[in-house]
Amino acid sequence: MSEPGALRTRLDRLFREVAKFGVVGGLGVLVNLAVFNSVRHFSDLPVVRASIVATVVAIVFNYVGFRYFTYRDRDKSGRTRELTLFLLFSLVGLVIENGVLYTATYGLGWDGPLASNFFKFFGIGIATLFRFWSYRTWVFRALPAKEAVQTAESFLEQAPPRQATRRQPDRV
């Protein structure tokens, strides 16, 4: 494939991946904010604890969406590894997301409902950048490209066949 054609194909794949990630992530944000506001409204949990509960619910929702929609074509052989890395990077995202909310609420004293939702949303945005990079790089790894497999197969076909050497029987 020509260089411009290969670049166009890679950019097209990246665009589709970002779009699918955005759909799942957007729904995850709605789940996150809905749970956050419900917990705040129906319980006495402090703001950041309510946010952590909402983030955990959204992480579960997002894993299902990413595994079965966004990255369904990716390697599925190491599910334990995949889930462990997903949870690890999601935990880092949780800290980023709720660190922003914590700083605004307890560091700056901005703890009204509007401010809490704004900084929750802002924290989600920052954490999303980290999550996108880490999920696509470490968690949902791409299978080998068809071109690479075909190149390797053609290389093997061109190699001359190895001749087996016969071992001469030992003479006594």
UniProtKB/TrEMBL annotation:
<feature type="transmembrane region" description="Helical">
    <location>
        <begin position="45"/>
        <end position="64"/>
    </location>
</feature>
<keyword id="KW-0472">Membrane</keyword>
<dbReference type="Pfam" id="PF04138">
    <property type="entry name" value="GtrA_DPMS_TM"/>
</dbReference>
<feature type="transmembrane region" description="Helical">
    <location>
        <begin position="114"/>
        <end position="133"/>
    </location>
</feature>
<dbReference type="InterPro" id="IPR007267">
    <property type="entry name" value="GtrA_DPMS_TM"/>
</dbReference>
<keyword id="KW-0812">Transmembrane</keyword>
<feature type="transmembrane region" description="Helical">
    <location>
        <begin position="85"/>
        <end position="108"/>
    </location>
</feature>
<protein>
    <submittedName>
        <fullName>GtrA family protein</fullName>
    </submittedName>
</protein>
<comment type="similarity">
    <text>Belongs to the GtrA family.</text>
</comment>
<feature type="domain" description="GtrA/DPMS transmembrane">
    <location>
        <begin position="20"/>
        <end position="140"/>
    </location>
</feature>
<feature type="transmembrane region" description="Helical">
    <location>
        <begin position="21"/>
        <end position="39"/>
    </location>
</feature>
<keyword id="KW-1133">Transmembrane helix</keyword>
<dbReference type="InterPro" id="IPR051401">
    <property type="entry name" value="GtrA_CellWall_Glycosyl"/>
</dbReference>
